[in-house]
Automatic annotation (TrEMBL):
A GO molecular-function annotation: DNA-binding transcription factor activity
Protein's name in the database: HTH araC/xylS-type domain-containing protein
Species of the source: Mycolicibacterium sediminis
PROSITE patterns xrefs: HTH_ARAC_FAMILY_2 (PS01124)
Residue intervals of the HTH araC/xylS-type domain: 1-47
């Protein structure tokens, strides 16, 4: 999921982002995203910050 959302944020279309992240297609990515977060990947990518800095 992290790879797909990061790729969408970088400008990839959903199909390319889905394939890059190992999903079968954009529908599979969308279903998984909605099931996990309750939002489609296009909306989630606009509001999600993957700041994984643990040094704080």
């Amino acid at each position: 999921m992290h790879i797909a959302i990061t790729r969408v944020q970088a400008g990839d279309d959903l199909t390319t982002a889905a394939h890059t992240a190992g999903f079968a297609d954009s529908a599979h990515l969308s279903r998984t995203c909605r099931d996990t977060f309750g939002l489609p990947p296009s909306l989630l990518s606009k509001h999600l910050n993957w700041d994984l800095d643990t040094s704080v």
